[in-house]
Amino acid sequence: xxxxxxxxxxxxxxxxxxxxxxxxxxxxxxxxxxxxxxxxxxxxxxxxxxxxxxxxxxxxxxxxxxxxxxxxxxxxxxxxxxxxxxxxxxxxxxxxxxxxxxxxxxxxxxxxxxxxxxxxxxxxxxxxxxxxxxxxxxxxxxxxxxxxxxxxxxxxxxxxxxxxxxxxxxxxxxxxxxxxxxxxxxxxxxxxxxxxxxxxxxxxxxxxxxxxxxxxxxxxxxxxxxxxxxxxxxxxxxxxxxxxxxxxxx
Length: 250
Fold this sequence. Notes:
The chain is built from eight helices and nine strands.
C-alpha cells in the first residue's frame, strides 16, 4: 500500500469500533485528516455491539466535516459497515426498513443517522484488514477500546487535535502511512493466538492485592466496577508466574 497524499482535495478518515461483549460496554474512535489538521474523536455506550460502534464512528467522523467540494476517503475494517451503506440501505429504504424475511432491519436508527451524515458528500469506502498493523486503524482501535474500558473504571483516552507535523511526535503514529507496521502486526497476531488459547488462570490486582482464579466469573466478580483494577488471562503456570512478577515489580 502507498502513502496517502494529504495535499489532494481529500478528507481522510480512519474509524473503528469495539465492544466488550456483544452486547456489552463499547467504544468508538475516528481520526479525521483535513488539510494539515488532524482531529481525533471518540465516544462510548454502556450497552452496545461492535457493529453499532463501527457505524457510530463513521457517522460522527463524516458529520464533523461539511465540505461538499472534497472527497471523503473512509478507511474501515468493517465489511458490515461498507456493505450496508453502499449496497443494503437502498433496498431497506424501498422496503420500509424490513429485511427480505419481513423482519425489521437491525440498527435502523444508526443506518438512518449514517445516511444523514453522508448527505450530499462524495464518499469512498475502503476496506482495510483489522489488527493488521495499519497505523490509522491501530490508533482508532486504541481510542475505541480505551473508551469502552473507561466504562469499567479506566481512564478515557487523550484525543489529539492539531497539525499533522506534530502528530507523529505526540502520538507516535505515522497516520498517513498505509503500509503495514510489521512489528505491531506480529504483536497483534500473537495476542489473537493467546486469546484463543484455553486459560490456565485469571490473574487480578485490586488495590494492590494480587489474586489468582481458575474461572473468569470468579475474577470478574473481583474486578468489575473497581477503579484501577487489573486483570489478565494466563495460559500456563509459567505465564501466570511471569504476570505476577511483572505486576510486583511495577
